[in-house]
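Repro case for the chain-ordering regression, as requested:
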Amino acid sequence: MNETQLDRYLSSLPLSSIRYYDTIGSTNDEALAWASQGAPDLSLIIADEQTKGRGRMERTWFTPPSSALAMSLILRPTNIERAHPARTTGLLALSLAESLLKLGLVPQIKWPNDVLLTNRKVAGILVESTWTGSELDAIVLGMGVNVLNASVPPADQVSFLATSIETELGRIIERAQLLRDIVIRVLDWRPNLGTDSFLESWEGCLAFRGQQVQVERGCGNPVIGELDGLEQDGSLRLRDEHNKSVIVQFGEVHLRPVA
Ligand code: ATP
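-- result from build under test --
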């Protein structure tokens, strides 16, 4: 991936500004800094390699050179996004899932922020924001996608098995083209973020639906139940052994199937 290729795939899209880096600490860090310096809506950062790629809670996201898609898109929040902040993680997850579906793959969203192929993690999403006092200034939609095999971390360094698009598809795809597909879908879904159609599409891609799952939270006992669907605010709904709804909110949670 280089600037010429990116330009070929992205130039017809209504992005405000694009910054490309051969290597960077973290695309989200750069995007947060750029947002606080006034980056306009739909500014995009892409890197070939991240040396300090981050997951949630400062966990490491592995992004070796020339093999992954690492991107962060800055949104200046609309009223819809202000009203549905948690749905923005779904916006990026669903946009990637639909792009993978178009390639003939069967993606699933491991709520809240991962995308799976054959039950292995192919991408992680990290949504962060900047605030002025209590006013939401910018939302950064960050994502790392394992495109080539070389982007998959060694098995002893992950808490959930990982895979790449190359492994699952049996061929290599152009990272810039995948990025274009994802951005097109983000732009299409964005005005519809508040609709039931968005929620249903997001829900339709959930991994482990109808299966027994366990959700570990930072504190307290794990919640166990059948994965039922999503609430309006993007929270996860399980059904416990008494067929009672149990709602799990966005946050420091880890979803796992019950073996
Ligand atoms: P979990 O997957 O355990 O539910 P999580 O979704 O909260 O956790 P994140 O914080 O989003 O995980 O992502 C960081 C974790 O993802 C790392 O701790 C590591 O286990 C794993 N990881 C890091 N880099 C990659 C990668 N390129 N592909 C797949 N998994 C990765």
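Ordering looks correct now. The radius of gyration is 18 Å.
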